[in-house]
């Protein structure tokens, strides 16, 4: 992975993230930090507290110290990189920031988080206005919360926390799960084309909001078809597949197939309809799979992919090892 921004955003609101605390948010609310949409700005739009900004903005500090906000990751995991976006904050952005991570079990309160064991992920670093500043993170640990510190005050439009999901393995023993869900650890490993939409959207929770919230290819004028490959959360046996073409009215694929490791046929070539959530039972495939490939014919797009099944004993062992290794990185040395 050459660009950590190709990894999913573990903090975004659409996967369950939340801004649980901030020391100040007088000018603009802290919850804006994790909105999935890109920030916007309308000049000369004033409220009771001044110009309205699409971000988090604190008051001008008149005493020593700095401001901070704590984000609960919607999906706990290993953080590979963070983007601090000061879009449209020109005369009111922070001069510096630092970022810390913590791991807390259960559902801690802001007071409990204040006493957490915070680990530095990004040292105090300079920021500029109206700029997306990326920071690479080098830590093998699993985190559940992120604290953004800004020095001394100011505004940040968005905070993106890119990484790899590491769910707690206790949630998956002897139950059916979505093997292809990003929140469970699945990830897109390749695709033929992503001209109109990002393939990682296929693995997000919830229903697609529009065509932009899915994966869509350019029009294919050649002899080949389009495809996307997914590494499942861990090895499992597939019992149901869901392909949702909702919102794709004139540009859904005509047909699709699903194959697993070594060409295992999970779903033979099957006709799809536009603007339709499709569910297909998989009753005769007992081979465990670790990866799947969706081929669409000839091209087009759809919004969500669900691969419902259960983890094999090997898959559960992999989930446990991933969790343990990221909780106690010393085990990897």
From TrEMBL:
Keywords: Hydrolase, Purine metabolism. GO terms for biological process: allantoin catabolic process; purine nucleobase metabolic process. It comes from the Bacteria. Residues 16-165, 185-259, 265-310 form the Allantoicase domain. Pathway: Nitrogen metabolism; (S)-allantoin degradation; (S)-ureidoglycolate from allantoate (aminidohydrolase route): step 1/1. Its EC number is 3.5.3.4. InterPro entries: Allantoicase, Allantoicase_dom, Galactose-bd-like_sf. It catalyses: allantoate + H2O = (S)-ureidoglycolate + urea. It is an enzyme of class 3 (hydrolase). GO terms for molecular function: allantoicase activity. HAMAP family: Allantoicase. Belongs to the allantoicase family. This is Probable allantoicase. The gene is alc.
């Amino acid at each position: 992975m050459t660009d950590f921004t190709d990894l999913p955003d573990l903090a975004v609101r659409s996967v369950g993230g939340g801004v649980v605390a901030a020391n100040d948010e007088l000018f603009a609310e802290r919850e804006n930090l994790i909105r999935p949409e890109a920030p916007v700005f309308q000049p000369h739009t004033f409220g009771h507290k001044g110009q309205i900004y699409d971000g988090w903005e604190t008051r001008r500090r008149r005493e020593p110290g700095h401001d901070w906000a704590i984000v609960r990751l919607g999906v706990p995991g290993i953080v590979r990189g963070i983007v601090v976006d000061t879009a449209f904050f020109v005369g009111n952005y922070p001069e510096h920031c630092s970022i810390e991570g913590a791991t807390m079990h259960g559902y801690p309160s802001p007071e409990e988080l204040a006493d957490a064991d915070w680990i530095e992920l990004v040292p105090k670093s300079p920021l500029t206005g109206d700029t997306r500043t990326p920071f690479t993170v080098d830590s093998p640990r699993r985190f559940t919360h992120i604290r953004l510190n800004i020095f001394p005050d100011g505004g940040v439009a968005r905070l993106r926390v890119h990484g790899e999901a590491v769910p707690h393995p206790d949630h998956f023993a002897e139950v059916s799960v979505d093997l292809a869900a990003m929140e469970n650890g699945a990830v897109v490993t390749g695709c033929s084309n992503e001209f109109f939409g990002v393939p990682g959207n296929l693995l997000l929770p919830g229903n697609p909001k529009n065509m932009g919230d899915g994966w869509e290819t350019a029009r294919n004028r050649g002899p080949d078809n389009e495809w996307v490959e997914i590494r499942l959360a861990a090895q499992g046996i597939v019992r149901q597949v869901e392909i949702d073409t909702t919102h794709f009215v004139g540009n859904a694929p005509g047909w699709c197939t699903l194959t697993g490791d070594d060409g295992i046929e999970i779903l033979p070539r099957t006709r799809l309809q536009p603007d339709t959530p499709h569910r297909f039972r998989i009753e005769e495939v007992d081979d465990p799979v670790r990866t799947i490939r969706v081929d669409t014919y000839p091209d087009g797009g759809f919004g969500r992919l669900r691969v419902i099944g259960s983890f094999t004993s090997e898959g559960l062992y992999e989930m446990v090892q991933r969790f343990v290794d990221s909780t106690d990185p010393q085990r990897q040395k």
